[in-house]
Amino acid sequence: MNKNLDYKYIDREKSWLAFNARVLQEASDENVPLLDRLRFLGIFSNNLDEFFRVRFAAIRRLSLSGISGEKVLMGISANQLVKDITEIVIEQQTESLRILKIIEDKLQAQNIFIIDESQITSEQENFIKDFFIQKVSPALVTIILNDLAEFPILKDTLGYLAVKLVMKPESEPKILGLAKPKKEIRYAVIEIPKSINRFVVLPSVDEKQYVILLDDVIRHNLSSLFNIFDYESISAHMIKITRDAQLDIDSDMSKSMLEKIATSVKDRRIGEPVRFVYDQSIGKDTLKFFLTNMGIDASDSIIPGGRYHNRRDFMDFPNLGRFDLLYEPKIPLPVEGLSLDGSILNKISKKDYLVNAPFQSFSYIIKFLREAALDPHVTAIKITLYRLAKNSQVISSLINAAKNGKKVTVQIELQARFDEASNISYAEQMQTEGIELIFGIKGLKVHSKICLVERIQNGKLVRYGFISTGNFNEATARVYTDVTLFTSHQQILKDVSKIFEFFNVNYRVHRYKHLIVSPHYTRSKINKLIDREISNAENGKTAFIKLKLNSLTDVQLIDKLYDASNAGVTIQLQIRGICSLIPGVKGMSSNIEAISIVDNYLEHARIYIFSNDNDPEIFISSADFMTRNVDGRVEVTCPIYDERIKTELIDIFNIGWKGNVKSRLHSDKLDNKYRLRGKNPVFRAQQEMYNYYLNRLEVVTEKL
């Protein structure tokens, strides 16, 4: 079908801001436990920081270049988009401050008080003074600004206190009528240290618990900090700067990829400012001083905020022993038939298994790698790594394997946004241990989640492996929903082996019999799968498409889905984040419904289901329907052949689709309306997903 010129789309940046508004909805939801509401407020703030460092920065670069950018920005000019985004963000920031005030009031009803320096008692004062002298003062960086030849570079991940000192005049006028000498103003900046928890827990009093922010501890001690100055008044207001996080990678051929990335990560700290947030009670003269000296102008997003910034720190608000104010933690369940005691390779040799974390345990991945590291018959382990946990068990398992004489090959993505420094550190560690490292492919990020183990059995090479939708990261596996397929399907794993060959020799494009691999084949294969559904619909056969994705922004694929809708294909979309497709529009998308689930866990799995005339073809993937995933990254989409797992993945999709508590409707209004429940009973998808696996285990136990 030819593209319909009337096809319309939602701007991706505004759609992303609508997703973050859904996170804010969780913070305002009275049914969410109080301390988790604070956590959602932190996630909202953290998301916004990343958005400004990456997406807003890119649009700003476009705007400053004089290019309108309408072609790449879905019909809106870059200049206009900068204004629109700033407007939306100011509105969201105001809403987040309102929600924070409500949460604080409700915490007080629970005897938890977040106080500032004006509310402390004399007992608390002694504690705070001691805490400041012992812990805070040695960690502080305080800079007097007036006499500096060059204004210091403020880091974009930190909060700062902008300090104004009004000095006492050196002499008082003695004769009536003489003008008073002008008072000298000095400015300073205090970096709020990251090494100390932002929330300082004060001693409890009569079952009341008190928390004060580190910012206010510093404010309370300004007089001792600046005691060498003879001032008559002092004030401190918080400011925060967000910088362009674009990596400018050196083209010097003599430097290794590791060196280039390491240098550009260091240079990121001096990236162009793209957002400046300030406490709106700051004096105009102080604000002007900082804006002028930091070179911030109207093309940057200047946003008035509250007394505290870096509210992402609320993600780490202390629980204070109040587990009644948190979601009850759910223990990850075992996978039916897959024990952590016996040999996992032996089990996988007989049939495929699916692990759906965090509902089921991520430990199976670690167990697989640990066993492979020790097994004398295993000769090689190959794996792709994107984002890793702080103390990664995955890394220690791979090092263990190398020490046991296995040939370990790791493709580690050094350009994993904001994890570059961590990945560089791990890369250096693995290099020292003799692990062969592959550092990406020029012009392509490696985002695939694959692992291959080669084993000699009866003189023959036998392969085992897993393919996932998520990162091999124990920390995020507790909060990100992802599915991982464990398989010994030799043909699929032969394709996986070819991908590792491609990493080594990039100019050779391999053919894959089973896997769908970006950037070479994903677009054409997805188009074919949609075309088949269109053909089936036109021939009166059953035709449907069910997609579970993080983002849907690729215009060509959206057009294809619009074409399918117009041909009579029923399309159900679960899109957690950005959705540029507009569902439910007559003549364009009347057969398309789209929802977003935002709940305690972050929906991250990508699942594609195509009816194929009631003989479903099902895939799991690392790829969203975004241009960068389809054309600009190495992504892997894996077909599912095991009928049990097919049924399970359809169940996973349908449980999500049935959700009527945390499901919002995607629309061009970006209003995040909740799906109407009507007379249907409450069905909270993530809770029901856990129950689904629990029930399966109970059924198995009963049989035994």
What features would you highlight for this structure?
single chain, 704 residues, alpha/beta, polyphosphate kinase like, Endonuclease, Chain A, 3 domains, eight-stranded mixed beta sheet, 18 helices, 27 strands, 22% strand
Given helix and strand content, the structural type is alpha/beta
Work out the helicity level. 25-40%
What is the fold-level CATH name, i.e. the topology of the largest domain? polyphosphate kinase like
- What's the CATH superfamily of the largest domain, by name? Polyphosphate kinase middle domain
Instruction: Give the C-level CATH assignment of the largest domain.
Output: Alpha Beta
So how many helices?
18
Q: In CATH terms, what is the architecture of the largest domain?
A: 2-Layer Sandwich
Biggest sheet details: 8 strands, mixed
- Strand proportion: 15-25%
Walk me through what this model shows:
This protein starts with 11 loop residues before the first helix and ends with a helix. The relative contact order is 0.09. It has 18 helices and 27 strands. The protein is of the alpha/beta class and 704 residues long. The protein has three domains: 33-245 and 276-325, Polyphosphate kinase middle domain (polyphosphate kinase like), CATH 3.30.1840.10; 344-508, Endonuclease, Chain A (2-Layer Sandwich), CATH 3.30.870; 517-703, Endonuclease Chain A (Endonuclease, Chain A). Strands 10, 11, 12, 13, 15, 16, 17 and 22 form an eight-stranded mixed sheet that branches. Helix content is 36%, strand content 22%. α7 runs antiparallel to α12 (420-432) and α17 packs antiparallel against α18 (685-703). β8 (273-279), α8 and β9 (301-305) form a beta-alpha-beta unit. The longest helix has 32 residues, at 78-109.
